[in-house]
Amino acid sequence: MAERVQITGPADERYVEILSPKALELLVLLHEALADRRAELLAARRSRQAQLSAGALLDFLPETAHIREDASWRVAPPAAGLVDRRVEITGPTDRKMTINALNSGAKVWLADFEDANTPLWENMIEGQLNLKDALDRTIDFTSPEGKSYALNPADTLATIVVRPRGWHLDEKHLLIDGRRASGSLTDFALYMAASAQRQLDTDRGPYFYLAKMESHLEARMWNDAFNIAQDYLGIPRGTIRATVLIETIPAAFEMDEILYELREHSAGLNAGRWDYLFSVIKKFRTRGREFMLPERNAVAMTAPAMRAYTDLLVQTCHKRGAFAMGGMAAFIPSRRDAAVNEVALAKVREDKTREAGDGFDGSWVAHPDLVPVCAEAFDEVLGAAPNQLSRQRPDVAVTAGELLAFAKTPGGVTEAGLRNNISVALQYLASWLSGTGAVAIFNLMEDAATAEISRSQIWQWIHNDVILDDGPLVTKDVVERMIDEELVKIRELAGDDFDPDRYGQAVALFTEVALADSFAEFLTLPAYERMP
Q1: Pick from 253, 258, 163, 243: which is nearest to 448 by CA?
Q2: Catalytic amino acids?
């Protein structure tokens, strides 16, 4: 079946280790079984969007009430390497990050082929090679300055959990019978073929994080993919475990159902807060003030709608025996600026202390220096226990109205907030287009999710006649003027490192996804088409 696959990406002598006949045959099997269903479910997303734009509201599904009301079912028991998840570090799969993340002291490393990664062909295949080499303990790295990196002893390393791309993304460098492969299935199949047995040999894996899902039917499709791959590779069903990011507002209404569909493979749910905010903006972008969020840096996790979302996630997970994982605090430490470092550590400590107190079993950080901060917050609550699965949260009773209470979110929309959205988006897109998907900007870690918030808020403000608290009506002309002004500031800060061509591409892409009359569902879709 591998002969049905056409590879159009650049070749390298080691790429065959990942693009093996076994991997391509598995990808073809997955494509045959799931490609049409994937297309149908993506069409269902568009249909639901049209309903929301026409005035519909989200609610818990009446047709699956029996699943929510049945108190008897549970997900699979915790798998080895995932019993204690108090600190998880996230990041792309480049060689240096692979070593640093595994050595970080975190319990889990989310090896990210999605939002913290740019899907250049070389990134995708070499990232798979880096994971394979890490499992073989043959990985090393030397920086341009001559600093060497190598793995610590095996019993100290984080458990690898791979995050494939979302269902909406294609892999344009792999064609099956002339049709683009799913990015999700590509990342999954290549990892399973190259590294699943290697991870099994460590008694920890293979494990996955599943991104951007909007319904339990999409979770069912992943469950079927897991069974196809396990059967093909001769691995017992139920070996794979997956944690689903609840990072879209429709998925927040289907948490029980998502766990149920994946139950023999489920490792829990994660509160993917940044994409969740983006999803809220996207889904209700034409609905006026009732669904308007303040500028991105003003939205706190203590806002009523966000509290309802996280409380419901903890309660839902724990009543099913599943892990509830906290989200990413965007603040990052600085080893050069003591004041910046102090603020970052305090903000992250506050965030993780709140999550631990709410019953989460662990949380995310984006930098090795934040691992001890997160661990300390969870150590204070967990003590000698590995998790909080026994904490059931019977005090929580979340309604659909509470999940949708975005109008109660404190904060405003200021000129500084608008300018920050523009500057962050431009700087991030310039980095993304050059191959880097996780970028430190203004002492915050930005990835595709935070860039999505920045550009979608601007689109929403323009199309809902928002007047800045301290300035004018937000219009295309106002934003275009500020783009020019912010670009001057970026050029001054970058100095000789400023690349006019790269920023010219970033401005063109930003204009397309923030100022066009139609709304791009994901900025990564047009961005990917600009890549070789």
Answers
A1: 163
A2: 163, 447
